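Fresh eyes needed here. I'd like your take on this protein's tokenised backbone:
***
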Amino acid sequence: MSTAIENLPLLTTIKVAGEVMGLTDDQVRGLLRERRIRYVLVGKRYMIPRDAIATFITENTVEPRCQDETRGRDFDSSTSASAITSFGPRTAAAGSAARARQIASKLKSPLPNSCTSAIEAPGRVIPLKSS
């Protein structure tokens, strides 16, 4: 079945959402279980809002890397005719390190729609009576 997102009802089933995204029912259930896609629980049925599908796709789309970001220092200053023109281990390592720093900075920053509040009251301790 070839259905466009804009033709879906406001809430759709796991099966239809999977067909639109090109996923199996089990893959969609996995996304629900991991809370990677929003859903509405109607009775015991998981219904997926139409806009949640588009949001999921947008938020999980991997952007291509910029060549300048992964470029090593050796290539910037090289002007000789025998310069290496292929990407080598140093360039790959520089790109990996840049990506690791980017992921680390995202992990350190609080998410705007995080389930935990920034300031949580400490739990109340109830002393036990000794006999």
